[in-house]
Amino acid sequence: MTTKKDFLYIQLYNKFKENIDNNIWEEGMQLPPEYQLMEDYKVSRDTIRKSLQRLAQEGYVYRQAGKGTFVNSHKSRYKLTSLESFSEQMRYMGLIPSSEILNLSLEIPNNRVKDYLETLDDEKVYRVERLRLANNEPMCYEIAYVSERLCPDLDKLVNSDTSLYKIYEEHYNLKLDYGNMYLEAEGCPKEYSHHLKINKGSPILKMKCVVYTDNKKPLYFVESYYIGTRYMFFASMPRI
User: Which pTM does this prediction carry?
Assistant: First the structure.
């Protein structure tokens, strides 16, 4: 049951988030100390701490021991605690997602992709290469391999405004269950740097992800190259 205290903490969290989104609290700024926030908003220390904790969990602020709480950089935040599409992530951030389709083909994948998707030797997959943008700025170079068996005629449905997640769930009536994600930092390969408008070797975050349907069968495998200076991955992990 939601208590009055819970409601206050959510209200305060929304207010703090609004301050950051509207640049009232600017990037790198140190937030007022807890006692000052308590006085300004007429709430308890526990309510302040819960609000700040949620902001930290979602990547809006970070804490330095003995120094205080600071506004994080305005990088796009990719949550590692739930399976969300690029479009959903960008809209959550108040940005407008779009894509440039660079290649869309039906092919027999290499052995590495076959292993991820558990395909047969003669089974084809769709290869969808897209430049992902937010507010028309490059964010990510993405190569997705999608099972033709599960998504026949996918090539007829994909356009620059397409969310593949929406196609999976609404057109093919597939239920996405979970994804296994792998992250590593590296320098941007030459073949992607031109599209991302960064120099070869610039820092990127390479993400590999296999997503499974509710029958535990792999639906797609994706490799994404995120511009390191524009993206931040975060997770809220309980101690078990």
Answer: 0.67
